[in-house]
Design brief:
Layout lengths: L2 H6 L5 H8 L11 H16 L8 H8 L12 H14 L4 H4 L3 H11 L2 H9 L32 H8 L4 H46 L2 H9 L11 E11 L7 E6 L7 E5 L7 H4 L3 E5 L5 E3 L2 E3 L2 E2 L1 E3 L8 E3 L11 E4 L17 H5 L3 E3 L5 E4 L6 E6 L2 E2 L9 E2 L1
Antiparallel strand pairs: 1-2, 1-4, 1-10, 2-3, 4-7, 5-6, 8-9, 8-15, 10-13, 11-12, 12-13, 13-14
Helix pairs in contact: 2-5, 2-8, 3-5, 4-7, 5-7
Length: about 400
């Protein structure tokens, strides 16, 4: 398959972006026949719609870890196609979400700032506007050191041993000395071994007692972490903004103090809503928060939750609004998914398990503007609600929630 054939399969405006940023007949479509075939293959994957889906991010992350570009070591039309396909999803992610895919985030940011991509994207605005990614505060990626190589034994060593055998008298003396030392060590170690055994039994007893004191629901929730991601693992609660101000070091971020009905007091939450919701509309706002994401550092301020917001189906430029719980809701009220009422949220989502990233693409608003999770496998609809009724996005139908 040629690149032009694959290109024709792309839908507009993605096809226009690739055609404009990668000139036909140039090396952007491959320098060698092998590279040309690989570029065409990647464009075809993008056209098929599979490679850039959030549920495929784990595979794409593994592919991009060692690469700067998709094909060989230079920029091609395949990079433009993948960037354009990723744009709708990446543009809606919160930092905690894109931080969990460092290779994809690094790759996307690199390609979006490529001169030919930016020039073409500006002519197609706002479809491929620049996505502001807070890479400065991305978590440090630990790299494991290679295991030390085992040293090969010198071949000369056995020969040397053969040449100079140890005298039998010396062997007997060494053996007797070793036996005596072993006896001394055993006697000295006995009290220590007894102490370790007692401490081990004490720790086991304390562990059992602690587990017995934990509510069964919490124990079951921890066990559930090992299973397939389900919506009930996500801890949604009603919150109220008791204070809000602009982030001192980021023009697009608010720093809110949100009361989730906890004895420990309000949580500090950072959200990128400055350009979408006026600060006066944020004051005392009743909202829905995601309360068990791993805390994330946002330009020097740690955020301990995420507000659930609805993004217009045509993108951020068309508007973002906060998801609202039903009238009369109070801070701390439980928010759950219909059909998963008995499920218990995890105490904290493990970023490696990607629970939120797996479930979130199914978050949407129905024709009634009610918030819901639609199971991508079965199409079943599960409204997001409290005991008083469904949560809503007041003005958006078909919005994505994040």
């Amino acid at each position: 398959m040629s690149a032009s054939t694959a290109l024709a399969k792309l839908s507009s405006p993605l096809r226009d972006l690739v055609a404009g940023a990668a000139q036909d007949g140039s090396e952007d479509f491959g320098k060698s026949e092998k590279d040309k075939a690989e570029v065409a293959e990647w464009i075809d994957k993008v056209a098929f719609g599979d490679v850039a889906r959030p549920e495929k991010f784990q595979d794409l992350e593994a592919t991009l870890v060692p690469r700067t570009y998709l094909v060989s070591n230079y920029f091609t039309a395949a990079d433009v196609a993948l960037y354009g396909a990723l744009h709708p999803t990446i543009s809606q992610l919160q930092p905690a979400q894109y931080y969990s895919h460092p290779a994809i985030t690094r790759y996307f940011d690199h390609i979006q700032h490529h001169p030919s991509v930016r020039k073409t994207a500006e002519s197609l605005a706002p479809a491929f506007s620049v996505v502001q990614l807070d890479l400065e505060n991305a978590p440090h990626q630990e790299r494991k050191a290679d295991a030390p190589k085992k040293k090969e034994k010198s071949k000369a060593a056995p020969d040397a041993e053969k040449e100079a055998p140890e005298p039998k008298a010396n062997k007997a003396a060494a053996k007797a000395d070793k036996k005596a030392k072993k006896a001394d060590t055993t006697e000295a170690a006995a009290p220590k071994a007894e102490k370790v055994e007692k401490e081990g039994k004490t720790q086991k007893t304390e562990k059992k007692e602690k587990k017995a004191k934990e509510p069964k629901a919490a124990q079951n929730a921890d066990k559930a972490e090992d299973g397939e991601p389900v919506p009930s693992m996500i801890d949604l609660r009603v919150g109220r903004i008791v204070d809000v101000k602009k982030h001192p070091d980021a023009d697009s971020l608010y720093v809110e103090q949100i009361d989730f009905g906890e004895e420990t007091g309000p949580r500090t939450v950072v959200s990128g809503l400055v350009n979408y919701i006026p600060i006066e509309e944020m004051q005392n706002k009743i909202l829905v928060g995601v309360c068990n994401l791993k805390p994330a550092n946002m330009r020097g301020i740690k955020s301990f939750a995420m507000v659930l917001a609805a993004t217009h189906k045509d993108g951020k430029d068309k508007g973002i609004e906060l998801v609202q719980p039903p009238a009369g809701s109070k801070p701390g009220d439980r928010v759950y998914f219909e059909g998963f009422e008995d499920g218990q949220p995890l105490s904290q989502l493990n970023p490696k398990k990607k629970v939120f990233e797996t479930i979130q693409p199914g978050f949407t608003t129905l024709e009634t503007r009610e918030a819901a999770w639609v199971n991508p496998a079965t199409g079943s609809v599960h409204k997001i609600r409290t005991s008083a009724g469904a949560c809503i996005a007041p003005n958006f139908v078909g919005a994505s929630l994040s």
